[in-house]
Design goal:
mainly beta; 10% helix; 2 helices; eight-stranded antiparallel beta barrel
Length: 203
């Protein structure tokens, strides 16, 4: 009983006095290091909970649409899917109290449609001597891959107050996409740089 009471003493004040914010969030990012045009769009709903006046934690759900073009394993990769994530943010003690840094971890459940080229295996049809005399034309191939992507990221954001409860928060994140489970052909993964905008209200 004493343990239960002690737990309630810890939890209840945080529940009563912790500040909650609900927001919509949009992120875009280019694929690879050369492309500067956006190749992915992420739209989501985010819920933040203030653990203290400096630290907050959050959860979010989102939907992602990506067009990687020729970045990836195949010549063209287009994907879509839902994602779930969590993370934390902390006010920085330098530059500005409106500047935040933090970490996040997201899981994406994507279907990626791909197109590419493959070369037929000459030896399946002809002898080695005949193959040496032939020039094979690549064959157009296409398919779909279902993949679970783990995406950890380092985040920084800046709080802009639009009113007593309404706020705007531009952000920049550096992360990496890791395909942790793949059903089908291997598709692209790697570093991502995301720019985002969050519009929310504090409850």
């Amino acid at each position: 009983m004493k343990r239960i009471i002690g737990l309630l003493i810890i939890v209840i004040p945080g529940t009563v006095f912790g500040q909650v914010a609900v927001s919509i969030e949009n992120q875009v990012y280019p694929a690879g290091f050369i492309h500067i045009y956006p190749t992915a769009l992420v739209n989501g709903l985010r819920l933040d909970y203030g653990v203290s006046d400096k630290v907050s934690v959050f959860v979010r759900g989102a939907y992602s649409v990506t067009d990687r073009k020729d970045w990836g394993v195949f010549e063209n990769e287009k994907g879509r899917g839902v994602g779930l994530g969590l993370g934390y943010e902390q006010r920085t003690p330098f530059l500005s109290t409106n500047l935040f840094v933090g970490l996040s971890a997201n899981f994406w459940f994507m279907q990626v449609d791909w197109q590419g080229w493959s070369f037929p295996n000459c030896l399946d049809v002809y002898t080695p001597e005949e193959c040496a005399l032939m020039d094979f034309i690549p064959i157009r191939t296409e398919g779909a891959t279902n993949v679970i992507v783990f995406q950890p990221a380092l985040n920084t954001s800046y709080l802009v107050k639009l009113g007593p409860a309404v706020f705007l928060k531009p952000s920049l994140s550096l992360g990496i996409e890791v395909n942790v489970k793949t059903r089908g052909n291997t598709v692209g993964q790697g570093l991502v740089l995301l720019s985002g905008l969050q519009l929310g209200v504090q409850l």
